[in-house]
Amino acid sequence: MQESEHQDSQEQRDLTPPSSEGAARAIEEEHPADIALRLEELEFEDQLRIIRSMAPGDAADSVAEMERHERVELLERLDPRHAAALVSEMSPDDAADILEELKDEHALNILGRVPKEDAAEIRNLMTYDPDTAGGVMNTEIVILDERLTADQAIQVIRTEIKDKEVPYYAYLVDAQERLTGVLSMRDLLLAPAGEMLMDMAKNQVLVSVTFDVDREEVAHLISKYSFLGIPVVDYEDRLLGVVTYDDVIDIIHEEATEDMQKMVGAGSDETVDSPWTYSIRKRLPWLFVNMLNSAVAAYVVHLFEGSIAEMAILAVLMPMVANQAGNTGQQALAVMIRQMAVDKLDRKKCWYAVFREIKIGLVNGIFVSLIALAAVFLLTGKGLLACVMATALLLDMLVGSLAGAGIPLILKKLGRDPAQASSIFLTTLTDSLGFFFFLGLAQVFLIAR
Amino acid sequence: MQESEHQDSQEQRDLTPPSSEGAARAIEEEHPADIALRLEELEFEDQLRIIRSMAPGDAADSVAEMERHERVELLERLDPRHAAALVSEMSPDDAADILEELKDEHALNILGRVPKEDAAEIRNLMTYDPDTAGGVMNTEIVILDERLTADQAIQVIRTEIKDKEVPYYAYLVDAQERLTGVLSMRDLLLAPAGEMLMDMAKNQVLVSVTFDVDREEVAHLISKYSFLGIPVVDYEDRLLGVVTYDDVIDIIHEEATEDMQKMVGAGSDETVDSPWTYSIRKRLPWLFVNMLNSAVAAYVVHLFEGSIAEMAILAVLMPMVANQAGNTGQQALAVMIRQMAVDKLDRKKCWYAVFREIKIGLVNGIFVSLIALAAVFLLTGKGLLACVMATALLLDMLVGSLAGAGIPLILKKLGRDPAQASSIFLTTLTDSLGFFFFLGLAQVFLIAR
Question: How much is the ipTM here?
Answer without folding.
Answer: 0.82
